[in-house]
Design goal:
The chain has 20 helices and 20 strands. With 615 residues, it is of the alpha+beta class. The strands form five sheets. Strands 15-11-12-13-17-9-8-19 form an eight-stranded antiparallel β-sheet, with no helix packed on it. The protein is globular.
């Protein structure tokens, strides 16, 4: 078969649907171009179907759907080159729906998702070290502690670098350049400038310095801006120059730009908030305690908590204690309690495994990043319950005048620093109330749980030399011919299988390279080293959801192993929106194999053999 000229194909398709002027909108999913036409009568369906490179044409849901297969992004991009339609970045802004808060939470959760288990492990390690030093099992000044503490704390200290990798995948930009930006923010000399007495300037422009180690929002904003700058530079620079010039210019621009913009914004916001709360502690301690207890973790999320540190340090120096720290144990332990409630209540085994150590590290060491980003914020409601518990518990502690006489992480072990100033009894009552509220609300009021997986393994015995393709999701199998999508059901895209999922986690069916990954998170193409090409399409026609309910975990070009997480999906949200959640997996190069044999008539757990390929 002669090679397809995709530029010619793009022009022919556009001409035969009635021209650019007849197209109201154009988008694409994993396999097809989706035209909305102003006048459907102007489109010549038969002529489009005859074009080399077109598999078939479907008219459904008010759309003129041209099925291309795996090369649909190429055709889409070519249409963008010859018209004002399409283009590689079209539709980016529609990837998320819902209110701004929900979109922000979804963004943060997706960026943290690949790092959750290392965060949970490091947080638990810190908790053990804190207990070991508290009970005298380990000398906090010894070299053994220093080495272990570096192992446990390094991830948190250089968190922006880890987040840069995930953010770069999310915003589709160069991850190594993103890491370089994050490394500059964490650079020791930059951190030292935050405490410098002399003014900091950049070519005479004053720079308001803050500490960026362990921060979250600054690097995410920086990588988001980097993605636009990088695309612009790659478009205008000649190919022989761009490979080294683009990262050079991105670093030269983005590092000072981040320091000049993010630093001042967070610094001024933090100073304004902290000054107001300092005044409130004198005027209405209970209200100040409620605000600090309820919003402290929100301040941490945005990096605003650093604005409180100078006030706290000054209090320790002049008074020997800081009244502002009194509500913090309630804030921290309420989030840990909410994570504990998730561990008890969730039916999702993976979430249960994550929530347990996350809650423990929060209780013992005051390390809440795994609990917040991996559990509570991801589920939303437990995070809100933690805020409520922290607010009430913080108000009680503040009424008692509780304060710490040492700079410690708010935790169960750190409560010893609160024994000397104010009412320690009120501090304990505040913490207890905060924990009870967050835990009870999580258990009683509940949350939108991630679906639980079935456990009914049933394997296909492979023939000698055959290749096995694992099920990407757990659930009940459906013959491809019964899938409610004519293109998939016809086998035009290849033989495969449908699975009605029982869990909202989607995994790689084999090791290979992700050749296509849609930002909407609903479809992925993977090619193995031995030539198997698979398309995993989550739900029927779910591209229409524009990413709502989907959180992708991999990016195009990424190498994955069998069983690596591809995406998570809120199945309840998909079905509530009226879409069929059936996940389809087809072998798109079926013709290259002697046989493609799908499992039928039973349930599978992800990782079980779903398709056997005979060479």
């Amino acid at each position: 078969m002669p090679a397809v000229d995709y530029r010619t194909l793009a022009g022919d398709i556009l001409e035969k649907v009635g021209g650019e002027s007849n197209v109201a909108s154009l988008a694409h999913c994993a396999t097809r171009l989706r035209f909305r036409l102003k006048d459907a009568a102007k489109a010549d369906k038969a002529a489009v179907e005859r074009l080399p490179g077109v598999i078939t044409v479907m008219e459904a849901g008010g759309q003129f759907q041209v099925v291309i297969g795996n090369n649909v992004p190429v055709v889409f991009a070519e249409i963008g080159q010859i018209s004002s339609l399409g283009g590689e970045n079209a539709g980016d802004g529609a990837a998320e729906k819902g209110n701004l808060l929900n979109r922000f939470i979804a963004l943060i959760s997706s960026i943290f998702l690949p790092s959750l288990w290392p965060l949970a492990g490091a947080g638990l390690f810190k908790a053990f070290l804190a207990a070991a030093t508290q009970f005298g099992w380990l000398d906090a000044t010894g070299t053994t502690y220093v080495i272990w503490n570096a192992a446990a704390d390094g991830l948190f200290l250089f968190l922006p670098i880890f987040l840069a990798v995930n953010a770069a995948k999310r915003f589709r930009t160069n991850q190594f350049t993103s890491m370089a930006i994050a490394a500059a923010l964490c650079y020791p000399a930059i951190g030292a400038l935050a405490s410098a007495t002399d003014p900091v300037t950049f070519f005479g422009i004053p720079v308001v310095m803050v500490t960026y180690t362990s921060s979250v929002i600054p690097i995410i904003v920086a990588v988001w801006l980097q993605s636009y700058l990088e695309r612009f530079l790659n478009a205008v620079l000649p190919s022989w120059l761009r490979n080294f010039t683009t990262p050079l210019l991105v670093l030269a621009i983005m590092v000072p730009l981040t320091l000049l913009t993010v630093g001042p914004v967070t610094s001024y916001a933090a100073k304004a908030i902290s000054s107001g709360i300092v005044w409130l502690f004198a005027a209405a301690p209970w209200l100040a305690g409620a605000l600090m207890g309820g919003l402290w973790q929100v301040f941490v999320l945005f990096g605003l908590h650093w604005g409180f540190v100078p006030f706290m340090v000054n209090d320790y120096t002049t008074l020997g204690y800081s009244i502002m720290t009194g509500p913090l144990p309630a804030a921290v332990l309420a989030q840990a309690a909410a994570a504990l409630g998730v561990m008890i209540k969730t039916k999702n085994a993976d979430l249960k495994k994550l929530a347990g150590p996350s809650a423990l590290s929060g209780f013992v060491a005051g390390i809440t990043e795994p609990a917040i980003y991996g559990v509570n914020l991801r589920l939303k409601k437990p995070f809100y319950y933690g805020i409520a518990g922290g607010a009430i518990g913080g108000a009680i502690a503040a009424i008692g005048g509780s304060a710490s006489n040492a700079f410690v992480f708010p935790s169960l072990l750190g409560l010893t620093a609160y024994m000397q100033v104010g009412s320690f009894t009120m501090q304990l009552i505040g913490v207890g109330v905060a924990v009870i509220i967050a835990l009870t609300a999580t258990l009683v009021l509940g949350f939108d749980d991630l679906p639980a997986a079935e456990a009914q393994p049933e394997l296909i015995p492979p023939a000698p030399g055959a290749l096995e393709v694992a099920a990407p999701v757990s659930g009940r199998t459906v013959p491809l011919a019964q899938v409610k999508d004519k293109v998939f059901a016809s086998g035009a895209l290849g033989k495969g299988i449908g699975i009605v999922p029982s869990a909202g986690t989607v995994y790689a069916p084999f090791g290979g390279t992700v050749v296509s990954a849609f930002p909407t998170g609903h479809a992925f193409g993977i090619k193995s080293a031995d030539g198997v090409e698979a398309l995993i399409h989550i739900g029927i026609d779910t591209v229409q959801l524009n990413g709502t309910g989907f959180t992708p975990a991999v990016a195009q070009g990424q190498v994955v192993e069998a069983g690596d997480l591809l995406a998570t999906v809120d199945l309840d949200a998909v079905t509530a929106a009226g879409y069929d959640p059936t996940t389809v997996m087809v072998i798109t190069n079926t013709a290259q194999f002697a046989g493609v044999l799908p499992a039928e008539g039973h349930s599978l757990v992800h990782g079980d053999t779903a398709i056997v390929i005979e060479r």
